[in-house]
Amino acid sequence: MPSYGRGVTSQNAVGDLSPTERSTIRRGRARAVADRAVLHAILDAGLVCHLAVVVDGAPRVLPTGYGRDGDTLYLHGSTGARSLREAGQVCVAVTLLDGIVYARSAFDHSMNYRSAVVHGDAVAVTEPDAKLHALRVLTEHLAPGSWDYSRRPTPKELAATSVIALDLAEASVKLRDGGPGDEEADVAANAVWAGVLPITTSFGTPVPAADLRGEWDVPGHVSRR
Amino acid sequence: MPSYGRGVTSQNAVGDLSPTERSTIRRGRARAVADRAVLHAILDAGLVCHLAVVVDGAPRVLPTGYGRDGDTLYLHGSTGARSLREAGQVCVAVTLLDGIVYARSAFDHSMNYRSAVVHGDAVAVTEPDAKLHALRVLTEHLAPGSWDYSRRPTPKELAATSVIALDLAEASVKLRDGGPGDEEADVAANAVWAGVLPITTSFGTPVPAADLRGEWDVPGHVSRR
User: What residues in A contact B170, CB-CB < 8 Å?
Assistant: First the structure.
């Protein structure tokens, strides 16, 4: 069984997901991970982002689908309705949970996670070819293989679709991994179990639609996922 | 194997997680689920929320831990740093993904999900007893059983902790379940497989901290999770 040590974490920008804030300050090993590949990997591994906009001076956040093409993030523009298209300035977060960190002290409990946050001005994608491309990216992110397998959008469907694009220029990554960061006195006391409970997200058995007629094999791009 | 029918969904407020927006409009069955028990259940099932604030007129969203006590949501106040405590007005979203909806058309692909969004003014929890209570709620949400098992916060740790409270008065729930909502012509063509790929989140095998000394059994509140 693998075990984590206190000092063996490779990239560790702690804080946001800790139940308390001190761990950020005390550990002092928080650092933004500038690596673009890490940013891309987090965005590619997530399925849903949380999109924040300002409406009449107040914050609004909503979950929505997205997809990445290079350093462009496409978002489903219907989210936030009118507000989004008026707002322009957005903030988008994608968060992946990797584990619950059980520490000796309640105070040092935390989570292992990978998180990307992107700031920027959302741009409406209106040109039909660009929109079709964006929809392909969105669909392939949600359901890889579906763009070629399923029926493509009609011009009417395309016109009814609202997509925004966001540049990944202003993006940051935070992550925490490894074991608990307990106080030395708590470690020395050795009175409490400590460790990490991993969290995994997985796909189950495909459930066919009730209105499918005849016998169907689940297509490979779904069954192999 | 269970199967979903197009018309059998019970509660279906579609839209935010669809790759396209038309499904919301066309289906016309979007509705907010007012049931408080559903709101509570979603909040209790999630582990991380996304907290949005406005900083200098711009939106900012960050993942953070939370916990619920009745109709009060406690959040880890260090998130958003100074901005949060200045902002007051916040918006918090908790989203649970339940499945990928594969439709006959790319356009009707969607996600099954449960989502709660809360608006309100965040209030700093400063009184020591109230803060201790909030920290208990936060800890027990993240790691049920840990409050009684692990070392409780010292006065110093408590003082170093920043917690905010948010009333659940202004909260809404959206969810989508069931199978794809394809066009009748696409269903009639019967040319494409359609259905739902369920998504599940689960806990793995606990990984003990490297600095645990001696032989340890994983405590029940961790191993049974």
Answer: none
